[in-house]
C-alpha cells in the first residue's frame, strides 16, 4: 500500500479535520456544536478555528454545516488512517487496552512518518480496520452486507458485532466497558430481552450485558452468528 504524502499543517488543523471526517462518517450533523463536543472545546474556539481553516482552504461552510474541501479531506484521510493503524499496532502488538490505545493514537497520528506507517502496516499484515472495526482509509475495506444497528435486532435473534462507531469512542469509560464485556468486532451474541427504557440485554461469550439505547443505536452488527 502506498503511503499518503502529508502536507505540513498544525496539529490543531489535523484534529479538526479528523473530527469533521469522523462526524460525517457516523452520520452526525457536522455543525459547530458537535465539533465542540467532540473536541471538548468551547463554541467560540470552534468558530475561530473554522474561520482559520476556511482561509486555509480546508473547509467550507454553508447553511450552518461544515464540510471538508478536497484539501481538507486529503488531510483528514491521512490523520484518520494513521490514527487507526496506530490503534491496531498498540492493541495487537503492544497489548494495550482499547481505551489506552485510543488515547495514545491521538498523539501518534501527528508524528507517524510515511516510512513508519508502511512498516507498521507490514508488521500488522495490512489490516483494513482499527480494533473497533472502523475502516482504515485506503486499505480496501469493504462493508459487511446487511449491516444494521444493534437496537434493530429482535429478541431471540443472533448477531455478530462489526463496528463500534467513533462517536462511542469518545464516551467516557465506554471503550473499557465494551472491551471488558467482549462487545468486540467478530464476536457473536444473542439478544435476550429489551427493557422498557430501551436497554438491550445481550449474551456474548456466555455472559449477559446490558447495552443502553444510546449505545445500541451506534453499535453496528450483522444479523446471524
Task: Sum up the structure in keywords.
225 residues; alpha+beta; Arc Repressor Mutant, subunit A; SH3 type barrels; six-stranded antiparallel sheet; two-stranded antiparallel sheet; 43% helix
Order of helices and strands: HHHEEHHHEEHHEEEHE
Shape: globular
Lateral strand order in the biggest sheet: 3-8-4-5-6-7
CATH superfamily assignment of the largest domain? Answer: Winged helix-like DNA-binding domain superfamily/Winged helix DNA-binding domain
Care to give the gist of this entry?
By secondary structure, the chain is of the alpha+beta class. Helix content is 43%, strand content 17%.
Please tell me about this protein's structure.
This protein has 225 residues and is of the alpha+beta class. It is globular and about 55 Å long. The strands form two sheets. Strands 3-8-4-5-6-7 form a six-stranded antiparallel beta sheet. It has two domains: 1-134, Winged helix-like DNA-binding domain superfamily/Winged helix DNA-binding domain (Arc Repressor Mutant, subunit A); 148-223, SH3 type barrels (Roll), CATH 2.30.30. 43% of the residues lie in helices and 17% in strands.
Lay out the secondary structure:
Layout: H1 11-25, H2 32-39, H3 43-55, E1 59-62, E2 65-68, H4 70-92, H5 98-108, H6 114-124, E3 148-149, E4 158-164, H7 166-169, H8 174-180, E5 188-194, E6 200-204, E7 207-211, H9 213-216, E8 219-223
Antiparallel strand pairs: 1-2, 3-8, 4-5, 4-8, 5-6, 6-7
Amino acid at each position: 500500500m502506498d503511503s499518503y504524502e502529508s502536507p505540513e499543517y498544525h496539529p490543531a488543523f489535523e484534529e479538526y479535520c479528523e473530527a469533521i471526517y469522523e462526524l460525517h462518517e457516523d452520520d452526525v450533523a457536522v455543525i459547530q456544536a458537535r465539533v465542540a463536543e467532540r473536541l471538548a472545546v468551547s463554541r467560540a474556539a470552534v468558530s475561530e478555528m473554522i474561520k482559520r481553516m476556511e482561509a486555509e482552504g480546508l473547509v467550507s461552510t454553508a447553511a450552518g454545516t461544515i464540510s471538508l474541501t478536497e484539501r481538507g479531506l486529503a488531510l483528514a484521510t491521512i490523520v484518520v488512517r494513521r490514527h487507526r493503524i496506530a490503534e491496531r499496532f498498540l492493541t495487537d502488538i503492544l497489548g494495550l487496552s482499547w481505551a489506552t490505545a485510543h488515547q495514545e493514537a491521538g498523539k501518534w497520528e501527528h508524528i507517524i512518518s510515511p516510512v513508519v506507517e508502511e512498516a507498521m502496516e507490514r508488521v500488522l499484515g495490512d489490516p483494513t480496520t482499527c480494533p473497533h472495526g472502523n475502516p482504515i482509509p485506503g486499505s480496501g475495506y469493504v462493508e459487511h452486507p446487511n449491516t444494521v444497528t444493534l437496537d434493530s435486532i429482535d429478541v431471540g435473534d443472533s448477531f455478530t458485532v462489526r463496528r463500534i462507531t467513533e462517536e462511542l469512542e469518545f464516551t467516557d469509560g465506554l471503550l473499557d466497558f465494551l472491551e471488558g464485556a467482549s462487545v468486540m468486532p467478530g464476536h457473536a451474541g444473542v439478544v435476550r430481552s429489551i427493557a422498557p427504557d430501551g436497554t438491550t440485554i445481550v449474551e456474548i461469550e456466555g455472559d449477559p450485558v446490558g447495552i443502553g439505547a444510546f449505545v445500541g443505536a451506534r453499535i453496528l452488527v450483522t444479523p446471524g452468528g
